[in-house]
Protein backbone atom coordinates (compact mmCIF):
# COMPACT_ATOMS: atom_id res chain seq x y z
CA UNK A 1 0.00 0.00 0.00
CA UNK A 2 2.64 2.53 1.05
CA UNK A 3 4.91 1.31 -1.73
CA UNK A 4 2.38 2.28 -4.43
CA UNK A 5 1.93 5.74 -2.91
CA UNK A 6 5.70 6.30 -2.83
CA UNK A 7 6.07 5.20 -6.45
CA UNK A 8 3.28 7.53 -7.50
CA UNK A 9 4.81 10.43 -5.56
CA UNK A 10 8.21 9.76 -7.09
CA UNK A 11 6.73 9.77 -10.59
CA UNK A 12 5.15 13.19 -10.07
CA UNK A 13 8.40 14.52 -8.58
CA UNK A 14 10.42 13.29 -11.56
CA UNK A 15 7.96 14.87 -14.00
CA UNK A 16 7.82 18.21 -12.19
CA UNK A 17 11.55 18.52 -11.39
CA UNK A 18 12.64 19.92 -14.81
CA UNK A 19 9.74 22.39 -14.84
CA UNK A 20 10.73 23.63 -11.39
CA UNK A 21 14.40 24.03 -12.34
CA UNK A 22 13.55 25.98 -15.50
CA UNK A 23 11.03 28.25 -13.80
CA UNK A 24 13.33 28.86 -10.82
CA UNK A 25 16.27 29.73 -13.10
CA UNK A 26 14.07 32.20 -14.99
CA UNK A 27 12.82 33.71 -11.73
CA UNK A 28 16.33 34.06 -10.27
CA UNK A 29 17.97 35.20 -13.50
CA UNK A 30 18.93 38.67 -12.23
CA UNK A 31 18.73 38.01 -8.50
CA UNK A 32 21.25 37.06 -5.88
CA UNK A 33 21.29 33.30 -5.36
CA UNK A 34 21.60 31.55 -2.02
CA UNK A 35 22.46 27.90 -2.72
CA UNK A 36 21.36 26.62 0.70
CA UNK A 37 17.97 28.36 0.40
CA UNK A 38 17.54 27.08 -3.15
CA UNK A 39 18.22 23.52 -2.01
CA UNK A 40 15.66 23.84 0.80
CA UNK A 41 13.21 25.40 -1.68
CA UNK A 42 13.68 22.45 -4.06
CA UNK A 43 13.11 19.92 -1.28
CA UNK A 44 9.98 21.82 -0.19
CA UNK A 45 8.70 21.93 -3.77
CA UNK A 46 9.18 18.18 -4.21
CA UNK A 47 7.50 17.58 -0.86
CA UNK A 48 4.50 19.70 -1.96
CA UNK A 49 4.30 17.85 -5.28
CA UNK A 50 4.33 14.56 -3.37
CA UNK A 51 1.54 15.60 -1.00
CA UNK A 52 -0.61 17.20 -3.70
CA UNK A 53 -0.13 14.19 -5.99
CA UNK A 54 -1.89 12.05 -3.39
CA UNK A 55 -4.52 14.54 -2.27
CA UNK A 56 -5.67 16.90 -5.03
CA UNK A 57 -4.53 15.53 -8.37
CA UNK A 58 -7.39 13.43 -9.74
CA UNK A 59 -6.77 9.78 -10.50
CA UNK A 60 -6.14 9.22 -14.19
CA UNK A 61 -5.30 6.51 -16.65
CA UNK A 62 -4.38 6.24 -20.31
CA UNK A 63 -6.69 4.69 -22.86
CA UNK A 64 -6.35 4.77 -26.64
CA UNK A 65 -3.56 7.33 -26.38
CA UNK A 66 -5.55 9.83 -24.31
CA UNK A 67 -5.53 10.72 -20.63
CA UNK A 68 -8.79 10.00 -18.83
CA UNK A 69 -9.34 11.64 -15.43
CA UNK A 70 -11.33 9.47 -13.07
CA UNK A 71 -13.62 11.84 -11.21
CA UNK A 72 -16.30 9.24 -10.59
CA UNK A 73 -18.02 9.55 -7.27
CA UNK A 74 -18.01 5.85 -6.44
CA UNK A 75 -15.88 6.35 -3.33
CA UNK A 76 -17.07 9.78 -2.31
CA UNK A 77 -17.80 10.09 1.37
CA UNK A 78 -18.19 13.31 3.26
CA UNK A 79 -17.80 13.87 6.98
CA UNK A 80 -18.60 17.27 8.41
CA UNK A 81 -18.85 16.09 12.05
CA UNK A 82 -15.63 16.82 13.95
CA UNK A 83 -13.91 13.79 15.52
CA UNK A 84 -16.29 11.25 13.92
CA UNK A 85 -13.65 9.65 11.68
CA UNK A 86 -10.87 10.04 14.25
CA UNK A 87 -12.92 8.18 16.88
CA UNK A 88 -13.95 5.53 14.35
CA UNK A 89 -10.31 4.88 13.44
CA UNK A 90 -9.22 5.04 17.08
CA UNK A 91 -11.77 2.34 17.96
CA UNK A 92 -10.38 0.19 15.14
CA UNK A 93 -6.73 0.38 16.25
CA UNK A 94 -7.17 -3.01 17.94
CA UNK A 95 -9.72 -4.33 15.48
CA UNK A 96 -9.70 -5.91 12.04
CA UNK A 97 -9.03 -2.58 10.34
CA UNK A 98 -6.07 -1.71 12.57
CA UNK A 99 -3.62 -1.15 9.69
CA UNK A 100 -6.00 1.12 7.79
CA UNK A 101 -6.87 3.03 10.96
CA UNK A 102 -3.23 3.47 11.96
CA UNK A 103 -2.06 4.56 8.50
CA UNK A 104 -4.91 7.03 8.17
CA UNK A 105 -4.39 8.64 11.57
CA UNK A 106 -0.59 8.61 11.48
CA UNK A 107 -0.43 9.53 7.80
CA UNK A 108 -2.63 12.59 8.24
CA UNK A 109 -0.25 13.79 10.93
CA UNK A 110 3.22 12.67 9.85
CA UNK A 111 2.84 13.72 6.22
CA UNK A 112 1.90 17.30 7.10
CA UNK A 113 4.54 18.08 9.76
CA UNK A 114 7.03 19.31 7.10
CA UNK A 115 4.67 22.14 6.11
CA UNK A 116 5.02 23.59 9.61
CA UNK A 117 8.79 23.33 9.42
CA UNK A 118 9.53 24.42 5.84
CA UNK A 119 7.17 27.39 5.58
CA UNK A 120 8.67 29.47 8.42
CA UNK A 121 12.16 28.33 7.41
CA UNK A 122 11.69 29.71 3.90
CA UNK A 123 9.48 32.76 4.61
CA UNK A 124 10.41 34.90 7.62
CA UNK A 125 7.09 36.75 7.54
CA UNK A 126 5.33 33.51 8.51
CA UNK A 127 7.29 32.84 11.69
CA UNK A 128 4.64 34.14 14.09
CA UNK A 129 2.23 31.89 15.94
CA UNK A 130 -0.89 33.62 14.61
CA UNK A 131 0.20 33.48 10.98
CA UNK A 132 1.26 29.84 11.24
CA UNK A 133 -2.08 28.89 12.78
CA UNK A 134 -3.81 30.52 9.82
CA UNK A 135 -1.49 28.60 7.46
CA UNK A 136 -2.12 25.41 9.48
CA UNK A 137 -5.83 25.57 8.66
CA UNK A 138 -5.60 27.16 5.21
CA UNK A 139 -3.57 24.34 3.60
CA UNK A 140 -5.81 21.44 4.69
CA UNK A 141 -9.01 23.41 3.97
CA UNK A 142 -7.67 24.14 0.47
CA UNK A 143 -6.94 20.44 -0.05
CA UNK A 144 -10.34 19.27 1.24
CA UNK A 145 -12.24 21.88 -0.81
CA UNK A 146 -10.32 20.86 -3.92
CA UNK A 147 -11.07 17.20 -3.22
CA UNK A 148 -14.77 18.03 -3.10
CA UNK A 149 -14.66 19.41 -6.65
CA UNK A 150 -12.71 16.48 -8.11
CA UNK A 151 -14.98 13.81 -6.68
CA UNK A 152 -12.86 12.58 -3.79
CA UNK A 153 -13.91 12.11 -0.19
CA UNK A 154 -13.75 15.05 2.16
CA UNK A 155 -13.44 14.92 5.92
CA UNK A 156 -13.31 17.66 8.53
CA UNK A 157 -11.14 15.34 10.65
CA UNK A 158 -8.45 15.42 7.96
CA UNK A 159 -8.39 19.21 8.36
CA UNK A 160 -8.00 18.85 12.13
CA UNK A 161 -5.24 16.22 11.92
CA UNK A 162 -3.38 18.10 9.17
CA UNK A 163 -3.61 21.41 11.07
CA UNK A 164 -2.31 19.77 14.26
CA UNK A 165 0.56 18.30 12.24
CA UNK A 166 1.48 21.67 10.74
CA UNK A 167 1.54 23.22 14.23
CA UNK A 168 3.76 20.34 15.43
CA UNK A 169 6.12 21.10 12.54
CA UNK A 170 6.14 24.75 13.54
CA UNK A 171 6.96 23.81 17.16
CA UNK A 172 9.86 21.69 15.86
CA UNK A 173 11.04 24.68 13.81
CA UNK A 174 10.92 26.92 16.90
CA UNK A 175 12.84 24.32 18.96
CA UNK A 176 15.48 23.99 16.22
CA UNK A 177 15.93 27.78 16.07
CA UNK A 178 16.26 28.00 19.85
CA UNK A 179 18.88 25.20 19.90
CA UNK A 180 20.78 26.86 17.08
CA UNK A 181 20.71 30.20 18.90
CA UNK A 182 21.98 28.59 22.13
CA UNK A 183 24.79 26.80 20.29
CA UNK A 184 25.86 29.97 18.48
CA UNK A 185 26.07 31.89 21.80
CA UNK A 186 28.58 29.41 23.25
| Alpha-carbon distance between the two ends | 47 Å
Q: How many helix segments?
A: 7
The stretches of 5 or more residues where confidence is low (pLDDT under 50) are none
Report the C-alpha radius of gyration, rounded. 19 Å
Biggest sheet character: 2 strands, antiparallel
The proportion of residues forming helix, as a percent range, comes to 55-70%
**Topology as a string of helices (H) and strands (E):** HHEEEHHHHEH
What is the SS-derived class? mainly alpha
Mean pLDDT: 90
Overall geometry comes to globular
Beta-strand proportion: 5-15%
> How many β-strand runs?
4
Q: Taking strands numbered 1, 2, ... along the chain, how are they ordered across the largest sheet?
A: 1-2
Explain this structure.
It contains 7 helices and 4 strands; from the N terminus they run ααβββααααβα. With 186 residues, it is mainly α. The radius of gyration is 19 Å and the shape is globular.
